């Protein structure tokens, strides 16, 4: 009797465990529990790992600069196509801790500034910062563009430029072009306009300084708002563009993202370098240092012109003055300098821009901006922000320095700001994902245990139901 109780007890346990496992799978209890935990833990709050990683990112960030050296300046002045040769990379280690951190509104928001410091890495560069580059004279082009409609002033400036040897092109060192040099033309104009800064550099005043005052959402109220920008320089909207939609400040600053990232969602980011917000969409699954992730990429529509994407009408400045797809005129936020941004080598821009400059070779792997995220935690596994700085060059009749130059968007330099998760962070993330895998698989382990107990039950039943032999049958056939 006791034996049969054990047999049927095993069968009952098998059924109960199997039903429990199936119920847990169908109800998604453990995945929902984990999602609830991560929503509460991934918050910008003192003492959390996510706050420490946001405040002082552990993986090293590198900024690589590539310059385009002009090889035929005289021919360009005669109207021929510019020919450029790429120089680089010139690599800098970027340090970007959050400072002046203050929590606001019961911990739902946090204010901070994000100063960046760049340290030159000679061993990761093709040469020293003293390498010379011949490129377009951006201060001169800006001045000529500003005064082109005033003949008297234009003639005076043109005469000064001839006497001082200033022209449409200049030769400067990498360090000068990046971090600044005293420009003689600006210095002379400062006599008449004392508040004019006579220093110029592509990243002048960007080293050891911040790009503005930020207020971020902490994610305490809604996990999807984690590290999103609430205001920048006390504003929720920009004022450079000609539509409310284009002036919106959307998403994070691109360094952090909320947990539980879905392949179907659109990730929004605000870039002070581009003076606008942009977005990225899922394209493929990837593996970074053994960790699975999702790759997000800004689609072509982000920089498409009015014809391809009517939502971008506000980026036409002045209103109605639209460039082609793949380029963005940011002169309104660069003190009127004719700066045009694009992807490196005019990747995904209209073909005419790359054809207008000899030496452009757009390539997806080298020139596409990418963001690789671990979807459960939202941690950035790998990212590469790639942008090209160009200048609109055109013939200006009041300035002989422009000669017969053809109108062209001239490439000056492009940058690749990249980061890859460090090994210590990989180990921490692997532990979190291993624990998640274990917890999520508990229902399946219960189902497996239920099946195993069921098999044991079947074996015991079959074994005990076999016919028992009688005493006579157990007697030997032959007696000695």
Brief characterization of the structure:
This protein has twelve helices and 19 strands.
Task: Explain this structure.
With 480 residues, the protein is α+β, with helices and mostly antiparallel strands. It has 2 domains: 60 residues; 363 residues, no CATH class. Helix content is 29%, strand content 26%. It contains 12 helices and 19 strands. Strands 1, 2, 5, 12, 13, 14, 15, 16, 17, 18 and 19 form an 11-stranded antiparallel β-sheet that branches. It has a 4-stranded antiparallel β-sheet with strand order 3-4-10-11, with no helix packed on it. The two termini are 38 Å apart.
Q: What is the overall number of helices?
A: 12
Unreliable spans? none
Strand content: 25-35%
- Give helix % range: 25-40%
Mean pLDDT: 86
- As for the number of domains, it is 2
Which structural class do you get from the secondary structure elements? Answer: alpha+beta
Radius of gyration: 32 Å
Query: Which shape, going by the Cα principal axes?
Result: elongated
Q: How far is the first residue's CA from the last residue's CA?
A: 38 Å
Largest sheet: 11 strands, antiparallel
Tell me the number of strands: 19
InterPro entries: CD36_fam (IPR002159), LimpII (IPR005429)
GO molecular function: scavenger receptor activity
Subcellular location: Membrane
Keywords: Glycoprotein, Membrane, Transmembrane, Transmembrane helix
Task: List descriptors.
12 helices, elongated, eleven-stranded antiparallel beta sheet, 480 residues, four-stranded antiparallel beta sheet, transmembrane helix, alpha+beta
